[in-house]
Amino acid sequence: MNLTYLFFQRINLFSIWFLVTFGILVNISASSVQGLNQFNDNFYFIKRHMAGVLIGVLIFNIGKKINFYSYSRLINFSIVFVTSALFFVLTYGIVRGGSRRWVDLGAINFQPSELAKPIIILWVAYQLTNMDTKFNNFFYLRRAMFLPVICCFFIYLQPDYGTTITIFGILLSQIVFSKIDFKYPVGILSLSIIPLYFLAISGSYRFNRITTWLDRDCDLGIDLLGSCFQLNQSRIAISSGGMFGLGPGTSRARWGMLPNSHTDFIASI
Closest by alpha carbon to 160, among 98, 77, 253, 241? Predict the structure, then answer.
C-alpha cells in the first residue's frame, strides 16, 4: 500500500476520533445543567449524543468494509430511500421548535435530512462521472438533479431552510467541478437569486436576523432582550472566560443564562 496514502488515512482517522471525543466532552459541559432542569437528568442530552455516536461508529465500520465499487449498486436504492424518508417525515414526523424534521425511533430521533447530505453527494457524483457523448450536458444534469431537487423541496417544507441552502450549495459546487458546461451552474445560480431573496424575506424571524445583522443592532446595544438576546449572551459567555476560558465545566453561562447552550452556541461555553 502507498505509504503516503496510509499516512493521510491515519491522519484522517485520528482527526475523526479526536473531534468525536472532544465533542462528547464539550457536550457534557454544555448540556448537563439544561438536562437537569428539563428532564431531571444531568446526562440526558449526552446519552442521546452517545447513542448517535455509537450508531455512527457502526455505520462507519460497515461502510469501510464495503467495496468502493459496490456503492454504485447501492446508490440508486439509497437516493430513493432518502427521498421516501423525507416525504414520510412531512406526514408522520414529530414536530419540535415549529419544524417537522424527525422520526421517533424510541431511544433516538432520526433526522433524514442529515442522511440526505452524503447520499445526495454520492448520487450526484455517480451521475456526473458516468457521462458519455451519447447525450448532451443538459440530459445528465437533469438526471443528476431531479431527485436531489425533490429532496431539497421536502426539506424546505419541514421547514429547514439552512439545510436546504447547504445541500443546494453542495450540488452547485459539484456541478461546477464536473464535466458539465460551465454555463449551466452559472445559469442555475442566476435563476436562484430571486427565489433566495423571497425565501429570506418570507419568514419574519429570518428577515429580522438579516436586518439585525445589516443594521448592527447587536453591536450598538439595541434590543438586547429581544432579537439580540442569544448573541449578546454568547458574547458575555466568551468574554467572561477570557483568552483561555474558565476551564472544563466551569462556564457561568451554562447555568441558564445562554438558552440551548448545547446547540449552535456551544462554542461560547
Answer: 98
